[in-house]
Request: fold
Amino acid sequence: MRKSLISLFCATLPGIFFLVSAEEKGTEPKRQEPLVVIESGDLPIILSAPHGGRRPVPGVAPRKGQDVPRFVARSDSWTDELTEKLADEIEKNTGQRPYVVIAKFHRKFIDANRPPERAYESEAAKETYEAYHKALADAREEVIARWGTGILLDIHGQAAELDTIIRGTRNGETVTHLIEKFNQDSLIGKSSLLGHLSAQGLTVHPPVNSTQNEHKSYSGGHIVGTYGSGKGGTLDAIQLELGRNLRRPAAHSDTAKKLATAIQNFTRQYLPSAKSPDALNVGVYLDKGAGKSKIQLLQALTTFDGISIQHLTAKDIQSGKLDQLDVLIQPGGSGGGQGRHLGEDGRKKIRQFLKNGGGYIGICAGAYLASADYSWSLNILDAKVIDRKHWARGNGTVKLTLSNSGKDLLQTSDKSLEIFYAQGPLLAPADNPDIPDYDPVATFQTEIAQKGAPKGVMIGTTAIAEGRFGKGRVICFSPHPELTEGLHHLIQCALHKVNQGQSHQVK
Reply:
């Protein structure tokens, strides 16, 4: 994807730009200082730095800023170099590089973080300004085409709080897609970008878990407003205002390392990872019917080595994207909501995926969905649901009894385990002649019988089932290993099992 030499928009004469590439010439071209540095990437991450440049724009006089509100002509010192170091650090850690767009022109000639009518005062500056924004628009289009979603991080500098990173999202507007998909915790909580920055020992504003408004002077400018999801779309955008002490050249390496770690931790949870022939490619359904537990599921998956994670919508499944994956996970939430939203076409694609050898893991709602008991069922597990009338029987910790095959599957010598239950299905054989019988690897030893549910019904029904469908394997959990401390590894065991016979290793 990325050329061996960065593609550079260089101004030779006012209004004239050209691309320089060593690959095209076969030799190292004569070095020219760029006005806009543009790098294509291998990750759904775009880094933008519009205010760190110091170069004049040929034929363009400094702006006067007449009638421009909050006119600023000074540069955000060292943000261009820091952004380059940040991209290098991400590539060093992951082997893959983000998209990069950096302004090398001084802000006093062009302010790329303003709309055109406030960004420049000379027609000779127009093409440089448009080159910067075309690069961002092209990167956004490519990220959405390749991954379906992504994040743009607009890097700035501020002198109000010298050791602090200030978040700017127009108080959540530019990350509308992120919040709608994952809830408010993805913006303000420990798993948010600021949460991960704080975990690296950096001071952030607003503080983690705070619902206060963003700093009125740094709440998000033209770039995040234009390319973020506030006006629709699936690319989210966050402005990061770094205090001067974090931007000083002496602090560059440390700041870049901490930023890179935080960004990687954030994106591993909330963004798809790059597909890899050496990794187990796992798709997680995150569309209508997926509940809040999807967040903990994604958190658990990001701790496993040897997998890449793809976020799926019903449309993705309907359009055939399962063909690129090894395992599909349907999370907790509403089985009916998921099944109906997938539609017959989506459900048919999942069945074909299993017939061709794909793996399926269903958790709670995903287990309801896998059953052969509803009009919206996938019919990939030969199971019916006991006491459908009292499906909403309550939440709490239950004890399971493991069979010998269950102990083998879950890699334990224990005969029982305690796990969190949240109204998952009580499974029993459906005796469907078209579906192979499943193995009840764990049954309920204790029960929850609230909200009018009769006692004695839950005990002995299947809690974890393992089955086959076509060439594929199916594992369904009625309870929630991802919501139980110390049991996340059960998902890892399930991934290993449904992947048996393939070359991928999940660690």
Notes: The radius of gyration is 26 Å. Residues 1-27 have pLDDT under 50 and may be disordered. The longest strand covers residues 150-158. The domain at 280-498 is CATH 3.40.50.880 (Rossmann fold).
